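Lab notes, practical 5.
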Amino acid sequence: MRTPLFLLTALTFLTWTGSRMTAVALPLVALAETGQAWTTGLVGGMAGLPLLTVGWWGRGLRDRLTSGRALSVVTAVQAAGLAVVPVAALTGQVGAAALCASGLVTGTAGALSGPAQRALVADLADVQERSDTARAGHDRATDAARWLAWQDLAHRISMVFAPPLGAWLVTVWGAQPLLWCESCVFAVAALAVLAVPAAQPGRPRRKDESAVVTRPVSPTAVLRRHPQIAAGVLMAGVGGVCWFGFTLGLAILSIESGRPGALIAAGVSGYGIASVAVSLLVPMLIDRLPRSTTMALSWAVLGTVFLALPVAAPNLVAIALVAGVGGAATPWGIAALNAMISEQTTGDERRAAFTAETVLHSGGASLGLLVGGAVIGWAGSVRVLAATGLLQIAAAAIGLLMARRSGADERSAVRRKAAPDRGSTEVSAGSATAAVEAAEGCTCSSPARKDARAA
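Output from the prediction step:
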């Protein structure tokens, strides 16, 4: 199963690189063909609509995205959506309709493929974990957490180098040839992902989970069923909504400081470089860290960075260093949330949980950017950076309390349920031990579990 996992990671890097270069080329084509500045954001804006609503319209579709063949269809649709604008440019028909159509098609495909890819990676990693006898004593989700962290690293590398590469290719080739190239890249990815097999969930389902497999699962239902995941998604969602404070806030602060573009360039560079560097360590260390605490610390540190940025301005080195602290913290929170989802869910629940993460984090970032300019114009960049920083710190504290309270409540409920009757102490002792271990997320090895049952 390692070959399909390597292939999925490579395809993640390839498609994200193409998407980020598209973000550079599309506005240029729209402006050149229409001559109207307002059309430059149509594709991105329309692409955000399916992402924000995928929890509603994508329920029946995401449950079918369990193999490379299904992902191939979605990727091919995305390639077709990317081709809409260059095809329209050939006939001189690039307008609002073509740009909106491209955004809707690519946004719909992207909203489905992102969570489905992560769920399939976790499923395949579970299969690899069970088949690898050398890791017989490791946690079930060890491989899943690591492979999801490698996938996030591929995403972050593309975030750093793809935009400048796209800008350079635009100057060398032009915007339209670059769009054709990116559409071909997605078409090749659609063919390559056919080699990825389907995988069965890594954990046998309990009898009380029969309802979960007989009807589609909504992200909301999964979050209610798994309050610790809900707490992590809350933190990630607030972080996504507040992201405009960093990008737009630093951009406006640059102007207010008399150094247009300099502060945002330093901040983004520091954040991106630190994020990639730390992401190299995350796959090797993530299994040693507590999930909820790691998520809370990650988002709290990022919120503190937001508070410190106005203090560091206008010193470019200080801005880069402070932003680098935020870039070094964020990958740990994302990796911990992905690991928790892979540990606590399987099958349809897993895909629904990853969808919830995508909608609230990525969709929240899109929503924040949509309204962020007006908010900064009303309140000012310094106040917005302070407010978004405090909001992330508050969300981290609330999320940690939610996660710990839900864990304590679950352990207490399991202990009460598993308490043996006076006449059946010996029969139920093993069941109580196993139930408490399950509620506490015990990662005992198989021999230890056998000893517990024997006791």
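Observations recorded by the TA: Confidence is low (pLDDT under 50) at residues 201-214, 409-455. Residues 115 and 358 are 7 Å apart (CA to CA).
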